[in-house]
Write a structure and sequence with these properties.
- Helix content is 45%, strand content 13%.
- With 267 residues, the protein is α/β, with parallel strands linked by helices.
- It folds into two domains: 68 residues, no CATH class; 156 residues, Nucleotidyltransferase, domain 5.
- A five-stranded mixed beta sheet has the order 3-2-1-4-5, sandwiched between helices.
- Strand 2 and strand 3 form a beta hairpin.
Length: 267
Amino acid sequence: MNILCKLARVSRSGYYKWLRHALEPDKDYRDYLKIKEVFDKGKGKYGWRSVKMRLLRMNHKKIQRIMRKYGLVAKVRRKNPYKAIMKKRMEHRIFPNKLERKFNQAVPFKVFCTDITYIPFRNAFAYLSVIKDIATGEVVAWNLSLYLEMTLVTETVRRIPLNSCENIMIHSDQGFHYTNPFYIEIVRELKMIQSMSGKGNCIDNAPIESFFGHMKDELDYKSCTSFEELRLKINEYMRYYNHERKQWTRNKMTPVEYRNHLLARRG
């Protein structure tokens, strides 16, 4: 025995200590089998937290210790570099304030402002997205929806009735919808120039805030008993606002009249 211990470079007492433990039954073995059963059902992808959720009576420290002891290591998915690149490209973006409160515009179809407001009606409420021409005051596009989804703003932009939107500035706040990559992509495809208000500064987008204020003062929307009734009233108000509502600051003309006036003066 002494010769064998010397060859193995272990002490005699160390050998007998190892032998004693080797012959003892493994007290963790039964718990190991329970953990291994859960681990295998998870196809080797369960960490100690997932195992704990399925073995509620077993202490989490014991689960961690036994998994380390028996080498039960969860398979971790490697990050896909291409997905990471796509995620980076799809992150929300904020654009500088290119408008800089220059609200005295004199050229139609050069600078638009846009925003969303909510419209309460009988036992419900809807969301209204509007795009307004700052120079003429004309509402060039709008969209009403029961849901605050991305299509609320993307459909509004697509409804702009122009053959080309190239080089038109569209100004908004830094809301979720306007920093969203899907909205940004549509604006880019239309070759528009995106501008944003300073964070939490509604004065930077005063023209659209003013429109919403006038609309809510003049439109009886709270009496509407259905979404369809509200939609009809909103559409009628937009027609009235653009074609009948004269504005003192625009030579007492309606937005459409003032737009035609400015275009004739330029041409």
